[in-house]
Amino acid sequence: MTSSVTGLVEHVSTAIHRSDRHSAALCLFGSAILALLTCVSFQVHALPSVAALLYMVVIVLVSLQGRFIPAIFVSIVAICCLDYFFIEPVFRLSKAATLNGVALVAYLTTALVVTGLLSRVSKSFQEIRALLAKTARQSAVLKEHNRLAEEIHDSLAQSFAGISMQLFAAQEAIRTNDDNGVGYVERANDLARFGLAQARSSALSLRSDIIEELGLIDALQMLVELANIPGRLRCDFRSNGVRQGSLPPHIQQDFLRIAQEGISNALRRGKPTVVGVSLLMDSSNLMLEITDNGSGNEDPVPEIGEGWGLSNMRERAKNLGAELDIRTAAGRGTSIIVRLPINWYPLTDEKNESLF
Questions:
Q1: Dist. CA 62–CA 24, nearest whole Å
Q2: Fewer CB atoms inside 10 A, N or C side of the chain?
Q3: DSSP-derived secondary structure letter, 230
Q4: Over the Cα atoms of the chain, what is R_g?
Q5: How far apart are CA 301 and CA 102, in angstroms?
Q6: Alpha-carbon gap, residue 69 to 289, rounded angstroms
Q7: Phi, psi of 99 (to 5 degrees)
């Protein structure tokens, strides 16, 4: 607590010193410009009204910086210059305050109005910028949640439709004394377990705080464990000692999402019995690999579409500056590999030992 208070005091003190330096610089800048204008105006025998107008321009420019004290200081200097160099008798500060009073009121009013308006505009701009940033964050979160909710809905709908068909077939088989009734029930049970595994892995991705709580490695381990279906699907995870603390949170978040989408894609399309997730590190790349032994695809480079669920993975990889490579063949499963170039900080433990 004490260290936090001390840090806050130091931060405020630094900000005040920085503000004081800025104000002093504005005072010097304004005074220098006034001196230059005074010399030029005096040399060309400019009228007092012309000099007063030029001084007003300087006051406005200083006031536009949003600093009240420099604006007041420059206003007072301008009044002194106007009185000393352009009001008879010259080279004397008049004690008759009428003209000085009018100039003072005009200059100070200008300074107050301009700085006040600028302060309000600046405050409004900051509020609008903060509101836009908050709206953008909420929009991104809402979009992600809607996508995941739709994915859960689709996967469950597909599972329930398959279960219904299998149970209906089982009902007909029992009614006709067909020996295949048990097989239909077993397939319905498999579909139910697949649907449950997909729902669990998708629900994990809905938790926005999962990376903060667990980190990428533990979150991937949990994701893989939730996807396991005893006796039907085995999911494995391995890591070669990647130091997740060195990874920015947004990289961890997107890697987790890609892994979730890769597993979900395998469950929906490939009908695998084994799915492997690996988080690896070589000399220059951080790699995430999702492999399965499912049915694969005839096209070695599947077209992007909702059916394969690859568009989101490609978009996430592109936003990270990573390369996404898909390798698949009919009857030989599918491999999804994400390579993120990492050559600006260490990501592996010294012993390079597996964390799992």
A1: 12
A2: N
A3: T
A4: 36
A5: 80
A6: 61
A7: -65, -40
Identify any residues that bridge with 323 across adjacent strands, giving them in sequence order.
Answer: 339
Residue type (1 letter), 150: E
3-class state of residue 10 by DSSP: helix
Confidence of residue 282 (pLDDT cuts 50, 70, 90): confident
The Cα 52–Cα 176 span in angstroms is 107
Q: Say if strands 334-341 and 285-292 run parallel, antiparallel, or are unpaired.
A: antiparallel
- CA–CA dist 156, 150 (Å, integer): 10
Q: Which residues contact 298 (CB under 8 A, 6 or more apart)?
A: 329, 330
Residue in this structure with the two tokens 């590190």, named with its chain if needed: 281
Query: 211-219: long-range contacts at Cβ-Cβ below 8 A with a sequence spacing of 24 or more?
Result: 211/249, 211/252, 211/253, 211/256, 212/249, 215/244, 215/245, 215/252, 216/242, 216/244, 216/247, 216/252, 216/255, 216/256, 216/279, 217/242, 217/244, 217/279, 217/355, 217/356, 219/252, 219/256
pLDDT of residue 276: 93
How far out from the chain centre does Cα 109 lie? Answer: 43
Residue in the structure block whose two tokens are 């909710």:
149
The number of beta carbons lying within 10 Å of the beta carbon of residue 40 is 12
* pLDDT value, residue 155: 60
Backbone dihedral angles phi then psi of residue 90, each to the nearest 5 degrees: -75, 165
For the stretch 40-92, pLDDT in tens is 988 888 887 788 888 888 887 887 776 778 888 888 888 788 778 887 777 67
